[in-house]
Structure to design on (1380 residues):
């Protein structure tokens, strides 16, 4: 029975209903796309072009890039369903099996060094599985249950054998790889960082495997797996001191019920010296059965998620080994659908990969869409509803948390109550162990004796033959003393050995005879143990019930926590979109403000200009008036000078007149003096008149001067006022400019915020499968893509074929399609093995350490140095068939077409055609080197390094 | 505690931290200063300023197990003490073995931990513990000190590696970075040789190399217009780092140091390696490890220590003095460690065997208290009598001495992983 599913939130239920009313004939790929679309928060990218699709799907299903011929054929093919035809062709090719075997090898073994099963053997096993499309449940069952004895299934035991059957490594890696849960940090206590990984989850899984041991089969010279029938999974938290034993328990399920075998009756083959222990009840076989019978949800989710991740570049749950309620899938309904459909199609790997490859989701372009306003608007509208839903779901999960705590308390109380019965039963088991020890010792002793007897028997037989032969020789050479001596020696030895053998056989008989009483003591000890066990099982019923209840409420709580986490994630996605919208709005607002500020600045500038004109005219006016002042001053000065001169004359004449008159008084009546006085008087009168006129003129001019001077100060005042206004207006321009600058800076910040917000959203859409993610080529893909592109691989395929031809001639299978197919597989395998040495340097530089997750990307200078300076890539670029094909191509377009189709699986742009042509033209004397450099520059580009 | 993965794509985290992180906001990742991003290239002055504050770690790995009695914790006159005297050092009251006269003059810059108890007498396991701060477990591998230091402290954008190990031979990359990934694994300078593939092949001259890289960049630009992510940035940048490394290849060449310095350090391997280490640290390499071999003296312990320490003493003391003179000691942690010490008991071959219950580690520089002596052993050196510490305490202390908050976690592609054993802590008495 499937464990209860989590309660789907209302919105999701709607999608599910929509999905379920679709016509049954609707293919899985279409149903996936409609679920993805219904659940999409952001916009989706366009469907990728043919070239990109071809490269992508060839890398994902074949681990290699297409040849230029394959690329031309596909790109030039006009048929509408060519993508589907391509996917089917790739899936049916032997290269699919070889590539997927490598992918699964890396996933399952994580590049651990070979110990007991070689990588070629293991990969051949996986290749056969993919070639025959062995269902994943069967593959997993074989890997989890193989003991490495049966030669056909021996490679499957590599998973445990090459981990030396170390129980903690097995627990960690089975948890991560088959259940998608990295429980390692829950070994010593509940996981400190993941609320929902418990120490009991760890030990429940551990209990399936801790009895498995590596057994060195000396006779067969190989190591195989055995299993003991005892070995408790006990835990104690270093934090809380909570301790207990646990029976096997799968993730999300209850402890299993197990048959009880008495000690001594519990083995098909008991663990005696030289004997591989095989219990009647194998916990590891039980793990294989229960994990793969379709009922364990976590097993199914894990593989569905990993296959999704293989194709899409990222799991719906990421990291793929951290499934827990607070790390929800990006599209819960899609993960549900893919999981249940994969189970329904009986774990058909080829079919699921086909459906995934045909989805639009798989075929999305790497280029994020630019138009996103409608999505942004929609997101805002959903937030209130989502917030309310999240809050209510969180409340629900909070309620069930309380139930969990109560169930835990109840379970612990029941477990404490069981202690007495458990101790009583364990005491009887200890007694049985004690009673069994003499039996085991005796069995061990007998086994040793029997080994000895077997060896002695062989010696006796051999020596008997030797005695026979030498006796015959003695008869033929009756007088030969040496021969007679040899016969005597041999006969003596024969007697001695026969005696020894009889001794050993007697010991065996004695020991065997000693067994029944010891055995009966053991049987006696069974009685109380059986009774105590029955009592214990009876007493355990409340504990079992409490545990069942605990698991139920815990699963419910986890489901509710997951539901809340899903809502929260959706809410955060919407919030990110809304936040982005607000950054967009802020840009728009800032832009509008900038326009306003610009207008204001322009107005201020024009006001300054006008004022400048005014100031100019005022300055002119002042200058004009200043000129008039100068003029007036000049006239005034002239008048003053003339007046002064005139006055001097008047004064002189007046003085002369006065002095003459005085002289006349002294000499009265003097004619000469009288005449002089008269003449002077006559002269003075017009002079005074003239002076008066001049004085009048000066007065007039003085007042004119005063007038223009007052005009000047008026003009100057006007000019100063206008200048002040100009300064004010200029200052305003400064202010407006500063505001505009500030606003422009604000725009730059806002635009940066938009860029980084957009980057965040693109990441989010990528995670949500709306935009195709870039994924690195694995070390193997990188090596194979380089070999294919440069044409290093070209001669290798015929060579591999020729090798197979030696044992399976083509002619011999010509009439049998199945045999022909199997020959193709062998050629592909031969090629793969032949190229292993070429792949190794890439693995050592581009792969993560052994035993670590292998999908994280890293780029180091030593990789770049290897590519740039070591002989490998340079040698391939110059020595592969691509450089040979390019050498004679003189037409620029033909040259670039072949170069780009071979390396980047697409036709070049005009710019690229010209670039190549120009570069070749720049090194006319070094054409081979130039071709090598061109190839190098493309195979080291980011476009080549990533699957896009 | 909650584990929040909803932050989503690692692409994004990498982008922020590695390539867009503003220099001034400095990406204080895991408590250490990370000189962040491409800004280093665009703001060389600020980068130089930060580079001065760049913390570094120098480890001398005394391979095989240095005898504490013949070095940092001498017991002259004790039945277990052996034939050598203890001599005074530049720290009044602190004595070390007379085999280390030059080092004795540098002790005011160094500190001794005399109370190490690691309870592990196996070479491999002991070495693992001393360099990871954890006991080896079957299910989990832990990164060595060099990888942790490089992850926490090395400038992301540097063209030079953050973690270098100078060993006797070989080349390539160490496999000791566990979950931190090969990016932080050590670059091996086998017998001081520069990193592999760091020289341009003869077939391609400088001009042709520049041209092909120009073509590569042009091809990248055309593609990156369509989509650019942190992954593409990291990839394209690794080629630029490679070019920088090739341009700075002299950094790896100790013969570029003055004749005088080469003479001061000595022409033997260890002397050359010490001088090379100084050169590397000066050029901004974050972690350098030099091995000195072999101290596994099950017989003739005393003669071997005369020979080995005779080689070690002078170059080591010169190294410490030079770092101090160059003002680098405040930013550079020096550690002299082994996988364990040697038995107080002297065996019938005049040897000392493996001993991990009471032995010593030497530290100095960075945040370590100069001249400190932590812990004591009893008169015969068979037991720690004060301030017992183990590998995990030491590991926390090394990192704390260079400013790493060891209570924090690394984010490894969405998986949070504690930097050091969360159930242990540092030795505060040792930190200034």
């Amino acid at each position: 029975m499937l464990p209860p599913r989590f309660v789907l939130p209302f919105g999701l239920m709607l999608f599910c209903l929509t999905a379920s009313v679709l016509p049954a004939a609707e293919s899985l790929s279409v149903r996936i796309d409609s679920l993805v679309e219904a659940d999409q928060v952001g916009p989706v990218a366009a469907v990728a072009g043919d070239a990109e699709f071809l490269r992508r799907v060839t890398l994902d299903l074949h681990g290699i890039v297409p040849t230029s011929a394959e690329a031309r054929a596909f790109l030039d093919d006009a048929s509408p369903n060519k993508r589907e035809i391509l996917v089917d062709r790739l899936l049916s090719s032997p290269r699919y099996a070889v590539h997927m075997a490598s992918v699964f090898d890396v996933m399952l073994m994580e590049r651990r060094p070979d110990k007991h099963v070689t990588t070629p053997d293991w990969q051949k096993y996986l290749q056969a599985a993919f070639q025959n499309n062995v269902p994943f449940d069967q593959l997993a069952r074989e890997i989890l249950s193989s003991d490495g004895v049966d030669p056909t299934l021996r490679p499957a035991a590599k998973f445990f054998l090459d981990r030396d059957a170390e129980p903690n490594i097995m627990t960690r890696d089975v948890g991560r790889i088959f259940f998608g849960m990295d429980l390692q940090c829950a070994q010593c206590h509940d996981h400190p960082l993941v609320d929902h990984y418990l120490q009991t989850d760890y030990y429940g899984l551990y209990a399936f495997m801790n009895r498995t041991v590596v057994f060195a089969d000396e006779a067969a010279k190989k190591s195989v797996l055995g299993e003991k029938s005892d070995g408790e999974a006990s835990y104690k938290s270093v934090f809380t001191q909570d301790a207990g034993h646990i029976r096997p328990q799968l993730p999300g399920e209850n402890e299993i019920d197990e048959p009880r075998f008495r000690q001594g009756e519990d083995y098909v083959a008991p663990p005696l010296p030289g004997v591989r222990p095989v219990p009647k009840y194998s916990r590891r076989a039980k793990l294989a059965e229960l994990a793969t019978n379709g009922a364990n949800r976590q097993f199914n989710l894990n593989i569905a998620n990993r296959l999704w991740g293989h194709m899409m570049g990222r799991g719906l749950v990421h990291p793929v080994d951290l499934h827990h309620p607070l790390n929800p899938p990006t599209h819960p309904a899609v993960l549900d659908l893919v999981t249940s459909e994969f189970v329904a199609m009986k774990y058909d790997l080829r079919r699921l990969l086909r459906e995934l490859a045909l989805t639009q989701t798989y075929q999305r372009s790497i280029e994020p869409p630019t138009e996103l306003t409608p999505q942004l608007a929609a997101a805002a509208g959903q937030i209130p509803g989502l917030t309310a839903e999240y809050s209510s779901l969180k409340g629900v999960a909070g309620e069930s948390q309380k139930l969990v705590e109560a169930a835990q308390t109840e379970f612990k109380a029941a477990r404490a109550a069981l202690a007495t019965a458990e101790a009583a039963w364990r005491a009887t088991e200890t007694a049985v162990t004690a009673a069994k020890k003499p039996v085991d010792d005796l069995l061990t002793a007998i086994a040793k004796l029997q080994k000895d007897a077997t060896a002695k028997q062989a010696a006796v037989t051999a020596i008997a033959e030797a005695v026979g032969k030498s006796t015959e020789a003695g008869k033929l050479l009756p007088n030969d003393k040496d021969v007679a001596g040899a016969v005597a020696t041999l006969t003596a030895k024969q007697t001695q050995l026969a005696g020894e053998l009889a001794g050993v056989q007697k010991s065996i008989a004695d020991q065997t005879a000693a067994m029944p009483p010891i055995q009966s003591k053991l049987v006696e000890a069974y009685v109380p143990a059986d009774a105590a066990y029955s009592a214990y099982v009876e007493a355990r019923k409340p504990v079992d019930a409490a545990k069942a209840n605990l698991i139920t409420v815990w699963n419910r709580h986890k489901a509710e926590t997951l539901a809340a986490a899903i809502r929260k994630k959706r809410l955060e996605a919407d919030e990110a979109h809304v936040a982005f919208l607000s950054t967009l709005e802020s840009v728009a607002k800032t832009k509008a403000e900038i326009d306003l500020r610009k207008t204001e600045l322009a107005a201020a500038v024009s006001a300054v200009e006008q004022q400048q004109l005014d100031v100019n005219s005022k300055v002119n006016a002042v200058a004009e008036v200043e000129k008039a002042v100068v003029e007036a001053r000049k006239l005034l000065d002239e008048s003053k000078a003339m007046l002064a001169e005139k006055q001097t004359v008047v004064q002189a004449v007046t003085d002369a007149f006065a002095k003459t008159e005085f002289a006349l008084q002294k000499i009265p009546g003097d004619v000469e003096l009288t005449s002089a006085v008269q003449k002077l008087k006559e002269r003075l009168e017009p002079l005074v008149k003239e002076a008066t006129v001049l004085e009048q003129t000066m007065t007039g001019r003085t007042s004119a001067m005063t007038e223009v001077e007052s005009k000047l100060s008026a003009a100057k005042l006007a000019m100063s006022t206008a200048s002040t206004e100009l300064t004010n207006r200029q200052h305003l321009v400064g202010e407006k400019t500063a505001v505009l600058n500030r606003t422009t800076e604000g725009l730059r910040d806002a635009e940066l915020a938009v860029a980084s917000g957009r980057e965040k959203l693109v990441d989010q859409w990528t995670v949500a499968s709306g935009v195709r993610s870039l994924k690195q080529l694995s070390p193997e893909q990188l090596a194979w893509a380089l070999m294919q592109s440069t044409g290093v691989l070209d001669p290798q395929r015929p060579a591999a074929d020729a090798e197979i031809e030696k044992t399976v001639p083509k002619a011999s299978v010509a009439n049998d399609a199945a045999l022909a197919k199997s020959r193709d597989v062998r050629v592909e395998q031969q090629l793969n093995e032949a190229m292993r040495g070429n792949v190794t340097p890439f693995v050592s530089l581009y792969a993560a350490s052994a035993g670590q997750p292998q999908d994280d990307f890293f780029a180091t200078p030593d990789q770049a140095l290897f590519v740039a300076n070591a002989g490998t890539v340079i040698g391939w670029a110059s020595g592969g068939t691509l450089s040979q094909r390019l050498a004679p191509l003189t037409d620029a377009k033909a040259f670039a077409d072949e170069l780009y189709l071979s390396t980047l699986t697409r036709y070049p742009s005009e710019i690229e055609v010209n670039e190549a042509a120009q570069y070749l033209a720049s090194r006319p004397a070094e054409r081979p080197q130039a071709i090598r450099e061109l190839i190098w520059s493309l195979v080291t580009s980011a476009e080549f390094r990533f699957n896009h | 505690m909650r584990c929040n993965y909803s932050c989503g794509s690692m692409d994004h985290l990498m982008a922020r931290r590695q390539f867009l992180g503003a220099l001034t906001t400095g990406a204080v990742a895991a408590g250490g200063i990370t000189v962040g991003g491409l800004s280093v290239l665009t703001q060389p002055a600020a980068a130089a300023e930060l580079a001065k504050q760049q913390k570094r770690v120098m480890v001398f790995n005394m391979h095989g197990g240095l005898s504490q009695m013949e070095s940092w914790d001498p017991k002259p006159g004790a039945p277990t003490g052996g034939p050598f005297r203890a001599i005074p050092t530049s720290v009044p009251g602190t004595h070390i073995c007379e085999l280390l006269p030059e080092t004795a003059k540098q002790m005011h810059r160094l500190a001794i931990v005399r109370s190490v108890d690691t309870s592990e007498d196996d070479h491999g396991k002991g070495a693992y513990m001393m360099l990871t701060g954890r006991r080896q477990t079957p299910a989990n591998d832990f990164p060595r000190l060099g990888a942790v230091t490089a992850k926490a402290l090395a400038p992301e954008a540097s063209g030079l590696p953050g973690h270098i190990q100078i060993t006797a031979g070989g080349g390539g990359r160490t496999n000791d970075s566990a979950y931190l990934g090969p990016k932080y694994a050590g670059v091996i300078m086998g017998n001081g040789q520069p990193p592999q593939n760091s020289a341009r092949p003869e077939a391609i001259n400088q001009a042709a190399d520049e041209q092909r890289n120009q073509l590569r960049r042009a091809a990248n630009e055309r593609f990156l217009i369509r989509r650019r992510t942190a992954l593409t940035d990291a990839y394209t940048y690794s080629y630029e780092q490679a070019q920088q490394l090739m341009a700075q290849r002299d950094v790896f060449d100790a013969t570029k140091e003055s004749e005088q310095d080469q003479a001061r350090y000595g022409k033997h391997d260890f002397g050359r390696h010490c001088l090379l280490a100084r050169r590397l640290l000066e050029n901004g390499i974050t972690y350098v490890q030099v091995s000195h071999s072999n101290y596994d003296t099950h017989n003739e312990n005393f003669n071997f220590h005369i020979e080995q320490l005779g080689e070690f003493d002078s170059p080591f003391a010169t190294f410490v003095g030079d770092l101090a003179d160059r003002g680098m000691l405040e930013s550079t942690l020096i550690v002299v460690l082994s996988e364990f010490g040697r038995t107080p008991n002297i065996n019938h071959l005049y040897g000392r065997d493996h001993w991990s219950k009471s032995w010593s580690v030497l530290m100095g520089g960075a945040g370590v208290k100069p001249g400190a002596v932590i812990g004591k052993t009893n008169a015969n050196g068979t037991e720690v009598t004060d301030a017992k510490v183990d590998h995990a305490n030491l590991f926390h202390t090394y990192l704390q001495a260079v400013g790493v908050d060891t209570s924090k976690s690394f984010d490894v592609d969405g998986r949070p992983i504690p930097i050091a054993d969360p159930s242990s802590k540092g030795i505060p008495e040792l930190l200034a």
User: Anything to note?
Assistant: Chain A is about 70% helix and 5% strand. The first helix of chain A runs from residue 10 to 21.
